[in-house]
C-alpha cells in the first residue's frame, strides 16, 4: 500500500469526502437509500452531493489501479492490487471468473473507505 502524509491536500480532501459519506450512510436518508436506491436517485436531497463524492473516490481508486497496472511485476507483488491484477491476467480466458476489473475496483474502494474511516476515527 501507500502512505499519505497529513499535509497532503489531496488526501485531506479524500478524508473529508469519506467522512461525509460515512455520516450520510449512518443517517436516516442513507438508510432510505440502502432500501430504495432508485427512488433516492430521483428525489432531491443531500444524497446527490454524496453520489458526486463517491465518484471522486472511485476516480482516485481507478488512478491507483492504473498506476499499479503500469508498474506491475507479476513475480514481485507489492500489495493486494498487484495480486488481484496478476490473478486477473491468469484468469482472463475464464468467463465465470470473479477476478475482473469491476470487482477489483469495488474491493479496493471498500478497503480504502473502511480502512481510512476506521483509522481516522480511532
Structure description:
The protein has one domain (9-120). The protein is 72% helix and 0% strand. It has helices at 9-26, 28-35, 37-42, 47-71, 80-90, 101-120. Helix 1 (9-26) packs across helix 2 and helix 1 (9-26) crosses helix 6. The longest helix has 25 residues, at 47-71. The protein is globular. The relative contact order is 0.12. The mean pLDDT is 89.
Oligomer: single chain
Taken together, the total number of domains comes to 1
Order of helices and strands: HHHHHH
Structural class: mainly alpha
Number of strands: 0
- The radius of gyration is 17 Å
Mean pLDDT rating: 89
Shape: globular
Low-confidence stretches: none
Helix content: over 70%
Family: Belongs to the cytochrome P450 family.
Keywords: Iron, Metal-binding
Pfam family, one: p450
GO molecular function: heme binding; iron ion binding; oxidoreductase activity, acting on paired donors, with incorporation or reduction of molecular oxygen, reduced flavin or flavoprotein as one donor, and incorporation of one atom of oxygen
What layout of secondary structure does this protein have?
Elements: H1 9-26, H2 28-35, H3 37-42, H4 47-71, H5 80-90, H6 101-120
Amino acid at each position: 500500500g501507500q502512505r499519505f502524509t497529513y499535509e497532503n491536500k489531496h488526501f485531506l480532501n479524500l478524508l473529508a469526502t469519506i467522512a461525509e459519506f460515512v455520516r450520510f450512510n449512518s443517517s436516516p436518508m442513507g438508510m432510505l437509500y440502502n432500501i430504495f436506491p432508485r427512488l433516492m436517485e430521483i428525489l432531491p436531497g443531500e444524497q446527490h452531493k454524496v453520489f458526486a463524492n463517491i465518484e471522486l473516490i472511485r476516480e482516485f481508486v481507478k488512478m491507483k489501479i492504473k498506476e499499479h497496472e503500469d508498474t506491475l511485476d507479476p513475480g514481485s507483488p507489492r500489495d493486494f492490487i498487484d495480486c488481484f491484477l496478476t490473478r486477473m491476467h491468469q484468469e482472463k480466458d475464464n468467463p465465470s471468473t470473479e477476478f475482473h476489473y469491476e470487482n477489483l475496483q469495488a474491493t479496493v474502494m471498500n478497503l480504502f473507505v473502511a480502512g481510512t474511516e476506521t483509522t481516522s476515527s480511532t
